[in-house]
């Protein structure tokens, strides 16, 4: 048995998979995000630990024999979060999350200090990354920075809490702006630019490598026959890729989670930071990937559901299974700023084209289309980096909406594959990495594609209408930028 733990932004998921890679059970525990100021986004690291323990407790209650037989544990997690720890390895402040926009000035400072930053890390300095957050703490909370002895990412804090070991793996470390992504090692120059050294970093392993053992008290709590081995694990998107079998060059997927990702697997380091394309290590050795990232994907639908005080399924039901035409209303989904291609943490969302005859359905459709148009920007940014996507799988909570997938296929202009178990990608990928850490198997033998239940092709009768709608939507950002 193998256990996958996915530490997301909105919830923690624990998933049990057996030796045949069947998902036997999963359990989610909700998390909340604190926003102490506009543009800020934080969570208490110990809330993640409590949620992990509660999730595994629930699995033990429902599947005690299976939990007892767990041999390996894999971790997946939200990327880029800054967890600052003191000498006792306890958090000194709340974690600053991936969608926090406070460190724009520090990004400029970091690139000025280290002109070769983009070449080394493969990425432009953006507020979402970890390194600028540390500069912000150094400037605004110097006493906290001075007391910091270890800086870890969210899932590394979970490993530390559950094993006592400070270990990170390549895919998550690549999103810190402290990793030499081509060499798969910490960059001393990048660390020095933020006032840190390797002594403040966890040791590095590959995502499929062994990386610690579960604490004895938790082994006893969960009735396990032996202490499971932890895998290095993966950042959330790399774990999703492992769960989808997207480990070979040419593999691609769309993630419709809280944030949105358009992913392409590569066999080498292919950076294109000027278009805000991310080039990171994969969780599989000697493999890399490119990503276009949007900051508000399924969270855009959650936002309008909250504003309208209506459940998401109720909002989606009147739309049916496919669009008849683009919405007359347009929506810019920049509720937390945007990453690819604008790298603009201060831009915000907008509805445009509203008229008396437009009701709730037109606005909800506009939200779904706005997210799809943002993915089209990612598609074009990846194309400029030399990556053309022919088809993509889709994962994440948004994949439950067939209407949204129809919109995506029409906007992106390539087939979208809907999957069985499309919402368990990260936790399932973590469980696969746990198996690899225990058995040492060839990743290609374990990380096979899941069953595709449907392929949604673009509707040629809508192609021209969506091309026109996309062109109109792209005029919103310059207009909003000019008004700011």
Which whole number gives the mean pLDDT? 95
Distance between the termini: 53 Å
Shape: globular
Q: Please tally the helical runs, counting DSSP H or I stretches of 4 or more residues.
A: 19
Alpha carbon gyration radius: 21 Å
Number of E-type strands: 24
Please report which band the strand proportion falls in: under 5%, 5-15%, 15-25%, 25-35%, 35-45% or over 45%: 15-25%
Query: Major sheet: size, sense and barrel closure?
Result: 7 strands, mixed
Structural class per helix/strand content? alpha/beta
Low-confidence stretches: none
State the helical fraction.
Answer: 25-40%
For the structure shown, list the relevant keywords:
alpha/beta; 484 residues; 20% strand; 7-stranded mixed beta sheet; 24 strands
Architecture overview:
By secondary structure, this protein is α/β, with parallel strands linked by helices. Helix content is 38%, strand content 20%. Strands 1, 2, 3, 5, 13, 14 and 15 form a 7-stranded mixed beta sheet that branches. Strands 18-19-17-16-22-23-24 form a 7-stranded mixed beta sheet, sandwiched between helices. α11 packs across α16 and α14 crosses α15. The N and C termini lie far apart (53 Å). The mean pLDDT is 95.
């Amino acid at each position: 048995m193998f256990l996958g733990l996915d530490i997301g932004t909105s919830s923690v998921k624990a998933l049990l998979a057996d030796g045949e890679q069947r998902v036997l059970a999963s359990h989610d525990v909700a998390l909340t995000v604190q926003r102490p100021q506009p543009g800020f986004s934080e969570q208490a690291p110990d809330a993640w630990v409590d949620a992990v323990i509660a999730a595994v407790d629930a699995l033990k209650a429902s599947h005690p024999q299976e939990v007892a037989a767990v041999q390996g544990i894999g971790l997946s997690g939200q990327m880029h979060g800054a967890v600052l720890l003191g000498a006792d390895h306890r958090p000194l402040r709340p974690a600053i999350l991936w969608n926090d926009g406070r460190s724009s000035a520090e990004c400029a400072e970091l690139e000025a200090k280290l002109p070769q930053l983009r070449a080394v890390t493969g990425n432009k300095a953006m507020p979402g990354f970890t390194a600028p957050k540390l500069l912000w703490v150094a400037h605004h909370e110097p006493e906290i920075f001075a007391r910091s002895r270890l800086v870890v990412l969210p899932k590394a804090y979970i490993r530390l809490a559950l094993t006592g070991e400070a270990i990170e793996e390549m895919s998550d470390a690549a999103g810190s702006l402290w990793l030499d992504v081509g060499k798969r090692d910490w960059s001393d120059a990048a660390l020095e630019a933020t006032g840190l050294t390797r002594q403040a970093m966890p040791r590095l392993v590959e995502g499929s490598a062994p990386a610690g053992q579960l604490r004895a008290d938790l082994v006893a709590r969960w009735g396990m026959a032996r202490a499971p081995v932890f895998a290095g694990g993966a950042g959330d998107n790399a774990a999703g890729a492992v769960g989808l079998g997207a480990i070979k060059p040419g593999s691609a997927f769309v993630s419709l989670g809280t944030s949105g990702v358009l992913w392409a697997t590569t066999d080498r380091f292919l950076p294109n930071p000027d278009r805000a394309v991310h080039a990171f290590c994969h969780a599989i050795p000697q493999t890399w990937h490119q990503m276009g990232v949007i900051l508000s994907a399924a969270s855009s639908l959650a936002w309008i559901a909250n504003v309208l005080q209506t459940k998401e399924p109720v909002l989606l039901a009147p739309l049916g299974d496919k669009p008849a035409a683009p919405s007359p209303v347009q929506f810019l989904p920049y509720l937390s700023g945007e990453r690819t291609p604008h790298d603009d943490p201060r831009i915000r969302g907008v509805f445009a084209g509203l008229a008396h005859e437009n009701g709730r359905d037109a606005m909800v459709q506009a939200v779904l289309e706005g997210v799809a148009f943002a993915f089209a920007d990612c598609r074009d940014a990846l194309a400029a980096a030399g990556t053309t996507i022919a088809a993509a799988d889709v994962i994440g909570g948004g994949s439950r909406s067939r209407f949204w997938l129809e919109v995506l296929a029409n906007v992106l202009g390539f087939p979208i594959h809907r999957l069985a178990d499309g919402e368990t990608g990260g936790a399932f990928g973590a469980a696969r990495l746990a198996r690899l850490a225990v058995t040492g198997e060839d990743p290609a033998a374990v990380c096979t594609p899941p069953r595709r239940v449907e392929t949604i092709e673009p509707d040629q009768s809508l192609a021209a209408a969506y091309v026109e709608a996309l062109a109109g939507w792209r005029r919103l950002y310059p207009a909003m930028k000019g008004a700011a």
